C-alpha cells in the first residue's frame, strides 16, 4: 500500500510558494519607489461675461464754444464801445486852424479827437490822458500838443475825476505833418480797472 506524500512535498505546492514570493517581492519594490505628484499649473478662471464686455468708452471733454471777440476798435466819429466798466464814444475829429497866437509849425496841422467817457460801474475812477492814451502817427509814437489845447477853452483835456455813473468830456490834441496817413490812439483801461476792461483802439485815416 502506497503512502501519500505530504502536500508540502508536492511539486505544485512549491510552485505556488514561488509565485507568492515573487508577488510579495514585486509589491515591495513598487512601494519603495517615491511617488511624484505633478502639480498642474494654476489657470485663472476668466468670467466669460467680463471677457466679452467692452471697456466703457471714455467721454471726450466737450469743448466750450469759442466766444466771439468783442469789438475793440473805433474807426469813425460817433462810434461807441462798451467794456465792463466804461463806455467810450468818439465825439469828433477836427483840424483847427489856430489863431493869432497859436499856430502849428510850417508843414504841420493840429488834429483834435473829442471823446466822451462814461463810468458805468459802481466805483469812482481818476482819468489821466498821460497814463491812459498812447498815440501813434504812421506807427511812430507821438505826444499831445499842449498849445493846441488852448484853442478851445470850452473843452479841456481827458483828465479828472470820474465818479460812478458819471461822464467826462475831453479832447486829445496833436500836431501832425499835413501828409500824415494814420492816427492811432490806444486807450488803456487796465490803468484804471486792473486789466478787467482791456484796451480800445481809435484809428483814423487822413482823408
Automatic annotation (TrEMBL):
Looking at the UniProt entry, the stretches that span the membrane are: 12-29
Q: Which residues form the DUF4352 domain?
A: 76-188
Q: Record keywords: Cytoplasm included?
A: no
Question: Any idea what this protein is called?
Answer: DUF4352 domain-containing protein
- UniProt lists compositionally biased (Polar residues) regions at 29-38
Source superkingdom? Bacteria
Ranges annotated as biased composition (Basic and acidic residues): 61-72
Amino acid at each position: 500500500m502506497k503512502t501519500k506524500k505530504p502536500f508540502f512535498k508536492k511539486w505544485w505546492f512549491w510552485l505556488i510558494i514561488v509565485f507568492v514570493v515573487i508577488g510579495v517581492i514585486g509589491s515591495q519594490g513598487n512601494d519603495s519607489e517615491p511617488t511624484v505628484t505633478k502639480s498642474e499649473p494654476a489657470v485663472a478662471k476668466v468670467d466669460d461675461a467680463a471677457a466679452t464686455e467692452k471697456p466703457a468708452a471714455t467721454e471726450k471733454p466737450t469743448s466750450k464754444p469759442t466766444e466771439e471777440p468783442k469789438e475793440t476798435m473805433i474807426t469813425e466819429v460817433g462810434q461807441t464801445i462798451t467794456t465792463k466798466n466804461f463806455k467810450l464814444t468818439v465825439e469828433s475829429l477836427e483840424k483847427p486852424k489856430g489863431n493869432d497866437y497859436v499856430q502849428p509849425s510850417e508843414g504841420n496841422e493840429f488834429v483834435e479827437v473829442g471823446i466822451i467817457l462814461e463810468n458805468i460801474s459802481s466805483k469812482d475812477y481818476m482819468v489821466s490822458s498821460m497814463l491812459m492814451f498812447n498815440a501813434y502817427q504812421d506807427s511812430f509814437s507821438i505826444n499831445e500838443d499842449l498849445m493846441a489845447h488852448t484853442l478851445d477853452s470850452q473843452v479841456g483835456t481827458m483828465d479828472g475825476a470820474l465818479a460812478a455813473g458819471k461822464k467826462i468830456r475831453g479832447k486829445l490834441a496833436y500836431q501832425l505833418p499835413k501828409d500824415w496817413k494814420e492816427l492811432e490812439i490806444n486807450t488803456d483801461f487796465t490803468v484804471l480797472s486792473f486789466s478787467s476792461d482791456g484796451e480800445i483802439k481809435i484809428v483814423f485815416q487822413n482823408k
